[in-house]
Every structure is written in structure tokens, then in C-alpha cells.
Design a protein that fits this description.
The protein is mostly helical and about 260 residues long. It has 8 helices and no strands.
């Protein structure tokens, strides 16, 4: 536990500093009390000096006792470097996710990392097509409501499955380069089967995205003119009418411009 180990040493350092400070303070107060105490007896101010010195000595003693007790306790074991790095990454991801743009940044980082992991394999092109189609569908997801909602859920499940399939295609392809000659034939057949499944799945996903775009287009298209266009036409007619009325009023106020009969 890296956190527990670091916490242990931080507490040890704090106790050591505190014990030293109280020791210095106790020595100073004790010396002052010894010098300032009159030989004829203790007065009220002298009692205060003596009491402060005694309290400082007691605190210093307690701190040294706590320090020795903690130092006698074995420190927690150190974490494996890989586990420590994983915990650091998890803390960093959690910190980024709390930012307003954090989820989008993390999603883009994961996309780029997945693309780089498939670079140089036959799955790279299919993955790029799938990623483009998924981004297109994500842009329309807010409008795919009602009867289209089950299709959106099915597309999300298919997206995860196809990305996993692309990873398997890349893994088999890399293993194919290392396989001995007697195992390459069967492994190549398996690779071709996986590639065909991936291509068919991506093509089906693209057809779903095209169908979703058609649904959005038909759902947004009214049977007559768009309401925004009709409202703009009404506003245009109103402005023309106001302009004509102002022109007539100005002509009435100016006899020279009034129309002759």
C-alpha cells in the first residue's frame, strides 16, 4: 500500500519535528525559570514560568515516547511498481473525470490508444470505419427517441462487440507471424473467419447509421413548409407593411410630397 507507507513516514517525520520543537521549548523555558526564579521564594510570575517549563517538558517527553513507539512499528511494505503505476493512473483518471470536459477528453484518449493498438493490422481499416459510424450515430442519438430507442441500445451493444472483435483480429494476426509453419494454415483460416465477421458487422453497423439518419430526416421534415420558414415569411410581410405605413405618414406630413389628385 503506497499510500499507507507514505502516510507512515509522513507521520514519523511530523512526530520527530514535534518532539524536537517541544524539547527546544522545554529547554528554553526551563532555563528561563531557573534564571528568573528568585532565591527568596517563588512569586506568581515565577510560578507561571515554572508551570510553562514543566508543561513543555511533559509534552516533549510524550512526543519522544510516541516517536519511539511508531519507529518500533514495522513500515508497511512497498507496492509493486506496476501496481503503484496503476493506482497513480486511476487517481489521474478520477481527477480528470471531475473536470467539465473530462469525460470527453478521456473518451478521445481511449479512441486514439485503441487506434494505435490496431495500427498495421487488417482490423485497422474496419475499426476506423466503425469509429466514424459510431461518432455519426452519437451525434444523432439525442434525436433517436421513441420507436428508435431500442435501435440505439442495440447499436451500443454491437459497437462494444465489434471493437472487441477487432482486438481479437489484431491479436490473431500478430500471433500468426510467430506461429510455426505447421500451425499457420489453421490459424490463417481462423483469422480470415474473424476478418469476415468484422467486415460484415461493420457494414451492418453502417447500414444502421444510414437508417438512423433517414429516421431523423423524416422525423424532422413536416408535411408542409417548415414552421421556421413560415414565421420568417410572416415577419418579413410585417416589416414591409410597417415600412409602407411610415412612408405614407411621412408623405402626409410633407405637402410637397403629398400625391396630387
Amino acid at each position: 500500500m503506497a499510500d499507507e507507507r507514505a502516510r507512515y513516514f509522513r507521520r514519523l517525520r511530523r512526530l520527530r519535528r514535534s518532539a524536537r520543537r517541544w524539547s527546544v521549548l522545554a529547554g528554553g523555558l526551563g532555563g528561563a525559570a531557573a534564571v528568573l526564579t528568585p532565591y527568596a521564594g517563588l512569586g506568581l510570575p515565577d510560578a507561571g514560568w515554572a508551570g510553562a517549563a514543566g508543561s513543555a517538558i511533559a509534552f516533549a517527553a510524550w512526543r519522544w515516547i510516541d516517536l519511539r513507539a511508531l519507529a518500533a512499528t514495522p513500515a508497511p511494505p512497498a507496492l509493486d511498481p506496476a501496481e503503484a503505476a496503476a493506482r497513480s493512473r486511476a487517481r489521474l483518471v478520477a481527477a480528470v473525470e471531475r473536470l467539465p470536459v473530462g469525460p470527453g477528453v478521456l473518451a478521445e484518449v481511449r479512441r486514439v490508444r485503441s487506434r494505435l493498438a490496431l495500427r498495421g493490422t487488417t482490423a485497422a481499416e474496419a475499426w476506423a470505419r466503425l469509429d466514424h459510424a459510431a461518432l455519426t450515430l452519437a451525434g444523432m442519438s439525442g434525436r433517436l427517441t421513441g420507436l428508435a430507442e431500442p435501435a440505439v441500445l442495440e447499436a451500443a451493444a454491437a459497437d462494444r462487440s465489434l471493437r472487441d472483435l477487432a482486438g481479437r483480429v489484431a491479436s490473431v494476426e500478430r500471433a500468426l507471424k510467430l506461429a510455426p509453419a505447421e500451425a499457420q494454415a489453421s490459424l490463417a483460416d481462423s483469422h480470415r473467419t474473424l476478418v469476415d465477421q468484422l467486415e460484415n458487422g461493420v457494414s451492418a453497423y453502417e447500414r444502421l447509421v444510414v437508417a438512423a439518419a433517414s429516421y431523423v430526416a423524416e422525423d424532422a421534415r413536416p408535411s408542409t413548409e417548415h414552421p421556421a420558414a413560415s414565421r420568417l415569411a410572416e415577419a418579413t410581410d410585417l416589416l414591409h407593411g410597417v415600412a409602407s405605413a411610415l412612408a405614407e405618414l411621412r408623405a402626409v406630413g410633407d405637402p410637397l410630397r403629398a400625391p396630387t389628385r
